[in-house]
Amino acid sequence: QVQLVESGGGLVQAGGSLRLSCAASSSIFSINVMGWYRQAPGKQRELVATILSGSITNYADSVKGRFTISRDNAKNTVYLQMNSLKPEDTGVYYCYARYWRTDWGQGTQVTVSS
Q: Are residues 79 and 73 in contact, defined by beta-carbon separation less than 8 angstroms?
């Protein structure tokens, strides 16, 4: 099992930026898929962005052009750079790693004020 710890969440005004980090307890080099989901109050968890082991990325339409996912295999860390934040980006952001199983982090709160 891979332990995942998110950090970097917080309160920011609309139009601002945050950078989330997801630190893994072991090597992510061979992990096929890593990514971020988010869950807003009263809503289902939704996929935000994914990055494959070959660094191919995929984004939800709602964040394309504003968010960038990246991975640093040497640091066993995945990042989510979030720019031009909107109030609708508010939620708990969860990191996940999918290999022969799926592991999740505990989540980090992002709040965007209008």
A: no
Rounded to the nearest 10 degrees, how much is the dihedral formed by the CA atoms of 67, 20, 30, 39? -80
| 45 and 37 Cβ atoms separated by less than 8 Å | yes
* pLDDT tens string 24-40: 998 888 899 999 999 99
| Gap between the Cα atoms of 114 and 112, Å rounded | 7
**Could you read off the pLDDT of 44-69 as tens digits, one per residue?**
999 999 999 878 999 999 999 999 99
Residues 6+ positions from 65 with CB-CB distance below 8 Å: none
Query: Is there a contact between 20 and 108 (Cβ–Cβ < 8 Å)?
Result: yes
User: Cβ distance 99 to 67 under 8 Å?
Assistant: no
